[in-house]
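Need a sequence for this fold. Nothing fancy.
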């Protein structure tokens, strides 16, 4: 099963790119905190319904899956592991954040 639920803070301003396919990609860096310390997680959100006006420091919730992408770089084939977002919202939007959590829990129960 591949289910990810992150709650954290944006460590940088999101970056929107237009891909050659015509799709849009919003790149996020989410820093999470646990008892073991902090971790910064790269998140890719393809074709977001709207481009949010978030800044570094915004608290967000992400529901998605982990994916490893391979691409050609200057040193040959390289790999990048990231979370591909299905849904993203601000923590302050409690109802929407709760719905994201319910979808993640539902995915776990179905597996």
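Here you go.
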């Amino acid at each position: 099963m591949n289910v990810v639920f992150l709650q954290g803070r944006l460590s940088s301003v999101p970056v929107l790119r237009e891909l050659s396919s015509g799709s849009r990609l919003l790149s996020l860096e989410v820093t999470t905190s646990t008892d073991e310390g902090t971790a910064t997680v790269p998140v890719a959100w393809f074709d977001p319904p709207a481009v949010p006006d978030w800044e570094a420091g915004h608290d967000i919730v992400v529901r998605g899956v982990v994916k490893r992408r391979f691409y050609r770089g200057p040193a040959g084939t390289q790999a990048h592991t990231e979370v591909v977002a299905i849904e993203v919202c601000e923590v302050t939007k409690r109802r929407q954040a709760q719905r994201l959590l319910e979808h993640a829990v539902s995915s776990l129960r179905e597996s």
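For context: The mean pLDDT is 91.
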